[in-house]
């Protein structure tokens, strides 16, 4: 089923690319972005990164650039390179502050790092853990403001830990 959807997307994207009034540069950027998505879905992350970086070289639209940056962050995060992932998520948010998925992923990274610090069981690490949990909460609250029906696990964690400052989100 997934292969059918991928092929359907490719056919529709090809048709749109030919029909839509877009500049050669815009079409080239979209082609790189689409190739990056295809490679990413196949687990070929190096190829996906190459295509996303190429898309960023030619793409001028901030909204479109934000999604390339977000996807680069996803790849780095999935490969355990959390510092790079955070950098790209933040760059994406600068261009498009309405990316709740980037906010969520930032929160997930901070939460994961907090759990790791907490497991060290030393006073220095416990304080670090608390600060990282607070950062995770901050980003999850922002994500929930943008997408109130998403991230029920985050909402529950915020409630249980007393970090849901605004019950309306």
UniProtKB/TrEMBL annotation:
Entry membrane topology: Peripheral membrane protein
Residue stretches of each TPR repeat: 29-62, 29-62, 66-99, 66-99
**Cross-referenced SMART domains, in alphabetical order?**
TPR
Localisation: Membrane; Plastid, Chloroplast thylakoid membrane
Keywords (alphabetical) are:
Chloroplast, Membrane, Photosynthesis, Plastid, Repeat, Thylakoid, TPR repeat
Listed Gene3D superfamilies: Tetratricopeptide repeat domain
- UniProt-listed GO biological process terms: photosynthesis
Question: Where is it mostly found?
Answer: membrane
Pfam families in the record = TPR_1 (PF00515), TPR_8 (PF13181)
Q: From which domain of life does this come?
A: Eukaryota
User: Got a GO cellular component term for this one?
Assistant: chloroplast thylakoid membrane
Please name the InterPro entries in this protein's record.
PSI_Ycf3_assembly (IPR022818), TPR-like_helical_dom_sf (IPR011990), TPR_rpt (IPR019734), Ycf3/AcsC/BcsC/TPR_MFPF (IPR051685)
According to its UniProt record, which protein family does this protein belong to?
Belongs to the Ycf3 family.
Main function:
Seems to be required for the assembly of the photosystem I complex.
Q: What is this protein called?
A: Photosystem I assembly protein Ycf3
Q: What is the organism of origin for this protein?
A: Nanofrustulum shiloi
Give the lineage.
Answer: Eukaryota, Sar, Stramenopiles, Ochrophyta, Bacillariophyta
- The gene it comes from is ycf3
